[in-house]
Amino acid sequence: MTLSFGWAQYVQGVEMGPRTFAVAHEFAARYIPFVLVPALLTLVVIGWISRRRYPDLFRRMVVGLGMGAVATLALDAVRQAGVIHGWLPGDSPVMFGKMATGSPDFSTYYPVGLFIHYLNGANFGLFYAFVWGKRPSVRSAVFWATMWALVLELGMMTGPPMARMVGLFGYNFAWPQLFILTLVAHVIFGVTLGLLVQYFLSEDDSSWLIPFIRGHRPATETAP
What we know:
The protein has about 220 residues and is mainly α. The chain has helices at about 1-10, 20-55, 55-85, 90-100, 105-130, 140-160, 160-165, 175-200, 210-215. It is globular and about 50 Å long.
């Protein structure tokens, strides 16, 4: 979505509106079949191969993707308040769906947009589980997952499409409600993600990214 709307807003210079979705769709129509779908298929193949050969990798993938999607449910519990009260310029699944499908039909774009929305959350969870793994403590897990969620919040508030639509941190739209709402939503996402990943990963998953890639056992590493 960031690339598609970035193309429309910053490269093509289209103001936010129906035309923006059409131009974003032009980019997405190439990106989805030639980049996103092959990437997802590759992820499935990696998961299938690692299921028996590399169980530690498989476990991080499954837990990260699954708990990222679940944590997105927690985020949505807050995000919907912004949609209801008009503090957000649009509903994320609607934006994603229209961008991906180019269709004005709710029954077409909304399921696709909802899938993309939760796929995003799952991918963020995968990144967290893969990079940080199981932390030495619950407090550490919550801290690092929240830091990761705040990075996502910063990107959302300063990058496309939000920054061009509402100004940095929503200053030109619903200030400060939009910023506070999205900040709280991402913090809740981070806390939920950290707790769930910490619970479902095993002690064998306590290596963070570099030792994990190098194949070092958890007992021999020093956590960052």
